[in-house]
Amino acid sequence: MSTKYVFGKDKHKKIGELLKPLAKKVLLVYGGGSIKRNGVYDDVMASLKENGIASVELQGIQANPRYEKVVEGVAMLRKENFDLVLAVGGGSVIDTAKAIAMGAKTDDVWSFFANGGEPEAVLPVATILTIPAAGSEVSPDAVITNKDRKLGYTSLQIRPAVSIVNPEIFMTLPKNQIANGVCDMMSHIFERYFTQTEHTDLIDSLAESTLKTIMRNALILMKDPKNYDAWAEVSLGGSFAHNGFLGCGRVQDWGCHGMEHELSAEDEKVAHGAGLAVLTPAWMRYVYPENKGMFFQFATNVMDIKSERDTDKTILAGIEKLQQFFVALGQPTTLRELGFTENSPLEQMAKKGAGEGFLGNFKPLYWQDVLNIYKACL
Amino acid sequence: MSTKYVFGKDKHKKIGELLKPLAKKVLLVYGGGSIKRNGVYDDVMASLKENGIASVELQGIQANPRYEKVVEGVAMLRKENFDLVLAVGGGSVIDTAKAIAMGAKTDDVWSFFANGGEPEAVLPVATILTIPAAGSEVSPDAVITNKDRKLGYTSLQIRPAVSIVNPEIFMTLPKNQIANGVCDMMSHIFERYFTQTEHTDLIDSLAESTLKTIMRNALILMKDPKNYDAWAEVSLGGSFAHNGFLGCGRVQDWGCHGMEHELSAEDEKVAHGAGLAVLTPAWMRYVYPENKGMFFQFATNVMDIKSERDTDKTILAGIEKLQQFFVALGQPTTLRELGFTENSPLEQMAKKGAGEGFLGNFKPLYWQDVLNIYKACL
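Structure tokens for the assembled complex are given below, as produced in the milestone run.
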């Protein structure tokens, strides 16, 4: 995990010092005005200035970030020489920064999202996290939406060189954003945890520990969103959820992420975390018969269900308890609550998600399976 | 954690391919003949040759590695140009390789062990692990003995660039070496886990998971030393125990390591793991009143002791169960079994270990404390 990961109170004020060996001029990418309201913007500018680092700004990145902003950023790289792209924001801002960095020597960044491959050169990326959720501060991944296609790209070249996580910054987040972030990071663990690979004791138990720590502390935050210590656990957990080590030595799934991407591609108002909160329990109920041992382990080790002789009963109690946890976070339980109905183009979305093949690995989900799960969530 | 960590069956045969971008000529450091008997040496030479990498050998590194071998290796660096030091062995071989690498531009490597500071240049180090124990394959540390001083040195400059862990290689290890390795890696977790730092939920639970996974699989290995899957869990656990992430955000202890180093400095036949197995339960009984909550957590979460209203009883049951685990591995419970008696220079060792100050942090151990613990172990 090559990212220099800097964690703790006031740490964002070190950005200039940390970037000094890497950059004389940075492209600063951020979203709306929240970093101006909470003082982070001023702190960053002061630290950059103090360390002699110039910056040019690209702002207005929105949730489910769009390729247009990447094009805009790449055009800026053509006009001036930048050494690094600095993202101050959440997953959308960081992913946009990564995609812009891929445009160091090419204007056609989208071709890598659509067709894979490695850009000839990528600028280094640094991040200051403003919402713990996507794990993009430590991951080699980015997800960008272009027209109606929401696609992911993965390369070690886009893993951030430096990331700063200061839990103090999260204390003003509204509860729905806390909830969405928690659901996203939990899903990053689920996508790795649920596997048909055998003999994965150590990583299984690390995943279980990370899930339980996030869940316990997320409930504290719903009552007390300014609790620094709970934020520290949740945000460190969010980074560990996606820094790669919980995926070591196992076939990963990523079916729920694939299904969710179609929801927010269809309606960009759908928050990724909310979509995952709806889909995940339905996915679990649909796929658990493929490996009851794995889901029994989840129910007893993560959800603390007392095991019963009736395996299915224990498993279903675990899934139900997880859904109730999402409800306690204020998340919906149905697609209807997210605005979908029988009249939504569910079949079309399922076909777009699964493509000619399938989503996921725990149980390969062909488009008919995806449609079944969507319908079960209505 | 910057080490490129390559894990799995047959992976040591990739060494040439992995080193090709880094080196044209390597100094190959190893111990006795075991790597020649088990075929690892031939595999390594074939892979280096196939990738056009020349090598010169320094062999004969022993347990509790001595500075003389470092001097010998540094002299070899002066005669020919090497790009990298390749260690094929356990912690002693890897630590020797790290110390030699520190001699890229200086003959006086010992001064850094004695006085700290950073060498002007360090050659990159690569490792192929032959016994999981010390965690040196992922750590920025080395421990070297010079005359009667056994000292550690830490710098990110000596963290290996590449490490290969293939559990197949461990299948021929004798049981006492398995036991010593397991005790060492468990101690690496204990030294981080037992802390007075508060609000460390996530790392606590990751440490607990790693300990439990190592212990469960170590007992499998005592019955079935050729069990690949158990070796995979134990050896991955050994690397995670010492790659640094279990030490994030907490004051660490390292008192038991400090006390043990004096045992094997006094008598180099004392295996580090065996010394730790004797000292650790005694240390726990001596220090637990400083923070009963921490040891209660250990007893219930790691040792699976059913908690009782009598806190001390629960804690002591946890420590006793740990000691019985060490016994199940075939470890001694007293210093007498390691050859020490009332006539051993225990006071002198305690004074040398604690110096003018103290060992450890959970409870600072002045020389009188260290002597008390040594005596409690007789």
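Strands of chain A lie at 4-7, 25-30, 54-58, 84-89, 125-129, 141-146, 149-154, 162-165. The first strand of chain A starts at residue 4 and ends at 7. Further analysis is deferred to the final report.
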